[in-house]
Specification:
Elements lengths: L6 E2 L2 E2 L8 E4 H20 L9 E4 L5 E4 L2 H7 L5 H16 L4 H20 L4 H22 L1 E2 L5 H12 L8 H15 L1 E3 L2 E3 L5 E7 L7 E3 L2 E3 L11 E10 L19 H25 L3 E4 L5 H9 L3 E3 L4 H11 L3 E2 L11 E11 L2 E7 L7 E7 L2 H24 L1 E4 L3 H14 L6 H12 L1 H9 L4 H13 L5 E4 L4 E4 L6 E3 H19 L3 E9 L2 E9 L1
Parallel strand pairs: 9-18, 12-13, 12-15, 13-14
Antiparallel strand pairs: 1-2, 3-23, 4-5, 6-19, 7-8, 10-18, 11-17, 12-16, 16-17, 19-22, 20-21, 23-24
């Protein structure tokens, strides 16, 4: 238990409360770096097409089988404060780009490992962080120079990007079909504003259903709603659907104020019931008058209203989620109506077919064949629940990769090529620096090569042979040279179709460098005891 106890006339002065743990200087740095390295090592074996999977079992016994970096780190219950910072790196990468989470964490871990070697040579952390910052700026410039332009029309290149994002996941065997689905979905929802491609990934809805192979995953040019038709008397399929989206209950409203209705005779009761029925019939008549033959309601639909809708041959679903309502509006062109008086023909959307189907033991409603859908759905299939989850994660990564490559309009070769090229240019750049920062830039260059090394190791290849061959090819000017882990040789990554979005690589290097710099600047870790309202509780520690 570390205490600050300067001696003053024989009396120790306690500055920190009893029960406080404190690590200072090199101890704090070593401890933080060790924790971060442990996290990086945990996900390093999942990198690349031949990466292995992790099975994560929680306290209840639920299982997740994945090789998706961010999923692994989120499922692991990580306590160490420095290790949590690396989890943040993965989360940021996932939110910003949607792919490259393992890469970012592995690079951050290796940057810290190389920094530790410099610390052992008595180089100050401030010098290392300054050098890392210079190297990061230079690395981003080199990546920009390597980039190849890509556009919405370039379908072949976009499919290669999607396939690269999926390799190594269990969905890989169906990657030809899945990549095509992802590219079609992204191109459908893409908007062009001020000459820039803007893609909202929320416009691509994914619905998971197990019980079929991943090959049976399909793109629906419209929306899949995880609801059933409310009344058995309603049609199960409607062609040339005119769709009404209603954000008001098809029920008799309760009064806003507290009120009592006293009924003293059977006639009054009868009149009251008839009035309720009349109100519900009026609601349904407004829907019928608008010409709608399909109704999606965000709120409830009264049993009697269901009956009247069924009598008029209208298919209806109730309690549809707000996000689904918004997606339906984008896909079908319908307007969400909050007042039935506003429901007119202009407010209706169109779909070629709305049908209810039973999949994996549950009824789902498909809204298909929308004219120009600005929101689409992917029905994700897999043989078991765990397989379906992993196929879904692969599709999510592919959507993120395709979207981010279109937003910047640039891609770089994959297969470890950009890391080796950036490392080569950084070594040249380091020679132009006068001070000790040169060593930090060299360390940064060495750290980046962990990516091709890991790709080779995970494929059972000799990582030193591969790295030497890669460096030789890049020295000759072949900046697209990468490692083909299936054949165990050096190939042109672009010709092989191994391409990744520029944003994946630049974001990975940015976030990894910044996390490493932040951890290196910490030289004091104070873990204080929790203080409850009734005083301090000994034995419980809390990280600051």
């Amino acid at each position: 238990m570390a205490q600050i106890q300067p001696q003053l006339s024989g009396q120790p002065i306690l500055i920190l409360p009893e029960g406080t743990l404190r690590q200072i200087g090199r101890d704090a740095q070593r401890n933080n770096i060790a924790a971060a390295k442990a996290i990086a090592d945990a996900v390093r074996t999942t990198l690349g097409p031949k990466g292995m999977d992790k099975m994560l079992v929680d306290s209840v016994g639920d299982i997740v089988i994945t090789n998706d970096g961010v999923t692994i780190l989120e499922e692991m219950e990580i306590e160490h404060p420095a290790a949590k910072m690396l989890v943040e790196v993965a989360k940021t990468q996932n939110e910003e780009v949607g792919d490259g989470t393992t890469t970012s964490v592995v690079i951050a871990g290796e940057l810290l490992k190389k920094a530790e070697e410099l610390l052992d040579q008595d180089i100050h952390p401030t010098v290392i962080t300054y050098g890392y910052n210079l190297a990061k700026q230079e690395a981003l410039k080199v990546l920009e120079e390597m980039a190849i332009p890509v556009s919405l029309e370039d379908e072949e290149m976009l499919i290669k990007i999607a396939k690269t994002a999926m390799t190594g996941k269990s969905a890989e065997r169906a990657s030809d079909k899945l990549a095509k689905i992802v590219v079609d979905a992204v191109r459908k929802v893409a908007k062009i504003e001020n000459g820039k491609v803007i893609i909202d990934k929320e416009d691509i809805k994914r619905v998971k259903k197990h019980g079929a192979s991943a090959e049976e995953t399909e793109l629906i040019e419209g929306i899949v709603i995880d609801k059933e038709v409310v009344h058995p008397g309603m049609p199960k399929a409607v062609k040339d659907a005119k769709i009404a989206l209603i954000d008001t209950p098809l029920e008799v409203k309760e009064t806003e104020t507290d009120a009592q209705i006293r009924i003293t005779s059977p006639e009054q009761l009868q009149a009251f019931i008839e009035q309720e029925e009349k109100m519900l019939m009026e609601m349904v008549n407004k829907i019928v008058k608008s010409g709608a033959n399909v109704v999606f309601c965000q709120k409830g639909i009264d049993d009697l209203a269901q009956h009247y809708l069924a009598k008029n041959g209208i298919l209806a679903a109730r309690r549809v989620k707000k996000s689904d309502m918004e997606a339906l509006a984008k896909a079908t062109g319908a307007k969400i109506v909050s007042n039935l008086d506003d429901l007119s023909q202009d407010a209706l959307g169109y779909a070629a077919l709305v049908e209810e189907k039973r999949i994996a033991g549950e009824e789902i409603i498909f809204v298909r064949g929308c004219k120009d859908p600005k929101a689409v759905s992917i029905l994700v299939r897999g043989s078991t629940e765990h397989v379906t989850d992993e196929v879904d994660r692969a599709i999510e990564d592919a959507i993120g990769a395709v979207a981010s490559s279109l937003e910047l309009g640039k891609v770089v070769p994959g297969a470890g090529a950009p890391e080796v090229e950036v490392a080569r240019k950084l070594r040249e750049f380091a020679e132009s620096l006068p001070g000790k920062e040169q060593l930090a830039v060299m360390a940064f260059a060495d750290a980046l090569e962990i990516i091709p090394r890991s790709l080779a190791e995970n494929a059972g290849l000799d990582s030193i042979d591969i790295l030497v061959s890669l460096r030789a090819e890049h020295d000759k000017g072949n900046k697209n040279a990468g490692v083909d882990v299936f054949e165990g040789k050096i190939v042109d990554a672009v010709e092989k179709g191994i391409v990744e979005p520029l944003k994946v690589k630049s974001q990975a290097i940015k976030s990894a460098a910044e996390a490493a710099e932040m951890i290196l600047r910490i030289d004091d870790v104070i873990a204080a005891t929790k203080v409850s309202k009734g005083g301090s509780e000994k034995g419980e520690s809390e990280e600051i």
